[in-house]
Specification:
With about 200 residues, the protein is mostly beta strands. It is built from one helix and 15 strands.
Length: about 200
């Protein structure tokens, strides 16, 4: 029995959909580009403008957190952060350096944080529509990604490896490392288990 045309289309879409979902469009962030921690909140946004990477001021007159957040909602909920235990002062700079690493320096040039890939042949960075910030090589292979250092929350396409740790903030207004959650397996069933540590 032959399938009617609507069923053929449905079958085609079912087979093609995973490819469409995993395809990512992105805007390259070139080597040498930088962002400055200031009141203007400059950022690098994903193509859909759903996510943004940049500085978020914590509290009034407080320091700045290098973060990724939901960009289209008014709360601008943070989904990943880098320097949670060492807020950056106003005037700090995050730069995709010409030799590869993503480096956050304070206004005096002292390094606060670095996103260093295992290999240094970084060609560009990109803020993806999945909420993942990546450093990529010449062949678009991912050399470093924010998804490998989960903080604050897990996004839909993000995974937490077994014995991986999700670092969550201490409180809503204090982004220093608070509770940590590990993925463990009991009888082949994954569970998130809170570990009692505040380092």
């Amino acid at each position: 029995m032959a399938l009617a045309p609507p069923y053929r289309l449905s079958l085609f879409l079912l087979l093609v959909m995973p490819v469409l979902v995993t395809a990512q469009t992105y805007r390259n962030i070139s080597l040498g580009l930088s962002l400055i921690a200031s009141d203007s909140n400059s950022s690098w946004v994903s193509p859909s403008q759903e996510f943004a990477f940049g500085f978020r001021q914590i509290g009034t007159g407080g320091g700045y957190l290098l973060a990724i957040w939901f960009n289209k909602i008014s709360e601008r909920t943070i989904v990943w952060s880098a320097n949670r235990n060492n807020l950056a002062p106003k005037g700090s700079k995050v730069e995709l350096t010409n030799d590869g690493p993503l480096v956050l320096n304070d206004p005096k040039g002292q390094q606060i944080w670095s996103g260093s890939p295992s290999r240094t042949a970084v060609a560009y960075a990109a803020m993806l529509d999945t909420g993942n910030f990546v450093l990529a090589g010449q062949d678009s292979d991912i050399l470093w990604q924010s998804f490998d250092q989960p903080t604050d929350t897990l996004l839909p396409t993000q995974t937490l490896s077994q014995n991986g740790t999700l670092h969550v903030p201490y409180s809503e207004k204090n982004y220093s490392k608070g509770r940590n959650w590990n993925l463990i397996r009991i009888c082949s069933v994954p569970f998130l288990s809170e570990i009692n540590s505040r380092k």
